[in-house]
Amino acid sequence: MHRVAAKFVPRILTADQKQQRVNVCTELRQLASNDETFLSRVITGDESWVYGYDPETKQQSSQWKSPTSPRPKKARQVKNNLKSMIITFFDIKGIVHKEFVPTGQTVNSGFYREVLRRLRE
Predict the structure, then answer these.
(1) Contact 111, 118 (CB under 8 A)
(2) Which residues of 34-70 are buried (b: 16+ CB within 10 A; e: fewer)?
(3) In a domain, 108, yes or no
(4) 40 within some domain
(5) Which pLDDT does position 6 carry in this prediction?
């Protein structure tokens, strides 16, 4: 006997939910095989965190030194407190739409519905 931990999954699906996924995948596969332009009409999306940097120019970081003094060292740039989420929608040709998510906004189905409603206008 040995101890094992349970595998974490996003959620456990019921038999009906699993069958619904199989049905949707089968339908999409049939659409893709029957219509050559199907995949070119698919739009997908993604969310990413974007961090702000405060870069220093080479001139700003330069210092005066004597020939015998050691060369100055500079640490790698670090992220500052500026952090935003961006959602991007793209198709086979590239980016279709992008927008920053307002601070404090939860990205859920309601938020996506609102974005799609604005895009249709």
Answers:
(1) no
(2) eeeeeeeeeeeeeeeeeeeeeeeeeeeeeeeeeeeee
(3) yes
(4) yes
(5) 74
